[in-house]
Amino acid sequence: MLEVRDLCAGYGGAQVLDRVQFHLLKGEVLGILGRNGAGKSTLVKAVMGMLPQTSGSIEFRSQQLLGLPTYRIGRAGVSLVPQGRWIFPRLSVLQNLQAACPVGTEPPDIIFSYFPVLKQRLRQMGGTMSGGEQQMLAIARAMCARPKVLLLDEPSDGVQPNIVQMLGELIPSLCKELEISAVLVEQNLDLVMNAAQRWLVLERGRIVHEGRLNSLGELETLEKLLGV
Ligand SMILES: Nc1ncnc2c1ncn2[C@@H]1O[C@H](COP(=O)(O)OP(=O)(O)OP(=O)(O)O)[C@@H](O)[C@H]1O
């Protein structure tokens, strides 16, 4: 689905990502782990065309995304659930969802089967929802664009442990049912190990490790790399 090669990106004069390479298979959930400041958010922002200084190659279903404006990357089928959620606080839940729907369409029903709480609160202002509910709204909103690739930036941030556990089950099943591939950026090791089939560790803008479940000594390696 996605093939990233030699991706360099940064801000102003400072380069953050250093020749990052990875691929994302169809239907796969790929974790991106790393300590604070490793460059995880920079990576998803670069894929989403949100950084001016980017070089390398980002191929999505044989289409080159690098250099395209963010709205065209979105239309091509890549959606971002940003860190901090960025929901519209003064719009209702329904309006938040409608804002991401292609013109002339409404939020697909399947979203409400995954997030029934949103169905019960369609008229509630986004800003009055709890942290966990806002995270569900942010994921549901991204789904309204009917993406093929979903980029999730630290969905566990500011969310209660029971909701994090729920996300660990929901993300892979949603991806499987809707045939979506996902990049799951996280510091929460448990969430990645529950939701992803494969993961990469970023350190100072470079990929230093690739792992998967059931690899011998994987947990110890990750704990050492992440300092947990
Ligand atoms: N807008 C910006 N301008 C300048 N430097 C930035 C900007 N955003 C991030 N950086 C720097 O880029 C580096 C990587 O930051 P990034 O947010 O990608 O890390 P991260 O791995 O997502 O961290 P965290 O887990 O804490 O969110 C850091 O050194 C950070 O200070």
UniProtKB/TrEMBL annotation:
InterPro entries: AAA+_ATPase (IPR003593), ABC_transporter-like_ATP-bd (IPR003439), ABC_transporter-like_CS (IPR017871), BCAA_Transport_ATP-bd_LivF (IPR052156), P-loop_NTPase (IPR027417). CDD domains: ABC_TM1139_LivF_branched. Keywords: Amino-acid transport, ATP-binding, Cell membrane, Membrane, Nucleotide-binding, Transport. Signal peptide: none annotated. GO terms for molecular function: ATP binding. Gene3D superfamilies: P-loop containing nucleotide triphosphate hydrolases. Residues 2-228 form the ABC transporter domain. The keyword Ribosomal protein does not apply. Belongs to the ABC transporter superfamily. This is ABC transporter ATP-binding protein. The lineage of its organism: Bacteria, Pseudomonadati, Pseudomonadota, Betaproteobacteria, Burkholderiales.
